[in-house]
Each structure stands twice: as structure tokens, then as C-alpha cells.
Amino acid sequence: MLKVLSLPQHYSQQWRDYYQLTKPKVVALLVLTAWVGMMLAQPGLPKLGLMIAATIGIGLLSAAAAAMNHIVDQRIDAQMARTYNRPVARGRLSTTQAIKFSLLLAGVGFLLLFIAVNPLTAWLTLASLFGYAVVYTMFLKRATPQNIVIGGLAGAMPPLLGWTAMTAEVHAHALLLVMIIFTWTPPHFWALAIHRRDDYAKVNMPMLPVTHGIEFTKSAIFLYTLVLFLVCLLPYLVGMTGAVYLLGSTVLNLGFIWYAWQLKFNAKPETAMATFKFSIWHLMVLFLVLLLDHYWFISAL
User: Which of 6, 88, 200, 301 is most buried, by the most CB atoms less than 10 A from its CB?
Assistant: First the structure.
């Protein structure tokens, strides 16, 4: 009787583990930026069916990339306080189970994009998966403190993927959205790396706070937030956005600069993590402001 009763609990835990394997919060932010890219790609509303197919396909391939990250990093994950309880690292899911799951997600996502959206989006999304799961996770992450700078391009691709899903072309405006996330990624991640510096040092991971020190990393974060401020002005300067975006972007970036300033010159034990958390809200709200500005701008014409 106890064994029978325990079966539903076992499967419930296993599904939770598979769900955790996809890094749902990270994927949700990626899909949001892809979704905004879809909406910005044309003046009116996108075709609902096409948008749903693109969102699911991009989400599945992003989840597959996250699962592959769990597989590749399982040894170091088991040694780090932040990641030791991940399903593969703890042995709740085997490597084989995780590989099959990630390949299933990737296969279904790619076919959905190829058949229901367009081949360009399918191949670009697959290239992003390769960039994150192979180039970044397997090589750059272990090779250079500039890992997140170079590897961040894969994570910056979703707005372009959303745009190409609607138009089947690579547009310069979509590349500006990629530039924003590409510039946002280092200060976002380095704030977390400062907070978890000892964890990365323990597993000999060459993150910037480990190789160059925390003070150097704080300076890099501050300088990157200044560059990000300038990059975020580009959509307005080229006529892609209007005053709503300019105002929202300015407020958000001044907030990010303030956090980076506090981290550099007035840091407390919790400042690095507070900066990391703010950066997530920064990107999420920035893209929602892009969306608001887009339809505000269109309605004003």
C-alpha cells in the first residue's frame, strides 16, 4: 500500500525535476524578449497562430539549451552552493534522462519553427542553442574570464529570433535589440559572480571576480552600465522608438548606474545580489516599455 501511494509522489517529483532542468525563470525572460521582438517587427498585431508557434518553438529550444547546461555542468554544480541541488547534480535525474529530454525539446522546437514559422528562425534558434550549450558552457566558461562577454551573444538573440519569425528577414532594428541584451549581460552576470565568487573559485571557474578580483569587476560593471545607457539610446536616435521609450529607458538605466555606483563605492554585503536582482527587472521592464512605446508611437501617427 505504501509503495502504491508513493508512486504519484515519485512521478510528481520527477516532473518537477524535469521542469527545473529547463531553468523556467531564465527561459521566461528570454521568451519575453523574443515576444517583444515579434510585436515590434510590424506596425499591427502579428498573426496569432504564427506568434504562438514561434513562442513555443523558441521556448522549447531555449529550454533544451538550459537542460544541456545542467548536463555539462553537473560536476561543478554538485560543488557549488547555488547549484548543488539541481536534478542532475544530485542524481535525481540521470545524465541519460537529461540528454534524452533535452534532445526531445530541441527536436520538437526546431521542427515546429521550421515547419510552422520559417527555416531562417529555426536555424538561427538552433545556432543560439549551440552557442550557449556548446561554445559557452563547454569551452568559453572554462577558458576565459571574458566568457560571459563573448558567450552572452547567444543569450541576446531572442529579440532577433522573434523578429525573423514574423518577417523571415534579419532587420537592423532587431540587431539593436540584440545589442542591448548583449551589453546588459556582463554587468548582470558579474554582479552575481561577485556574490558567488568563492563558489566559482572552489571549482576553478575563471569568472572575472576570481581572475581579476572583486574591485576590478565592480569597475567593469559600472563602466558597462554607462555603455548600456548609450546603447539603449540607439533605438530612439535611429527613429525606431519614441519619447515613451526614451523616458523609460533613461529612468531604468539611471537606476542600473546607481546600483553599480553603490556596488563600486558604497557596497554592503547584500549590494551585489541587489544589483543582480535589479538587472533582471531592468531588462524585463525595458522590453515592456519598448512594447508600450511601439503601439503608442503607431497610434500617434
Answer: 88
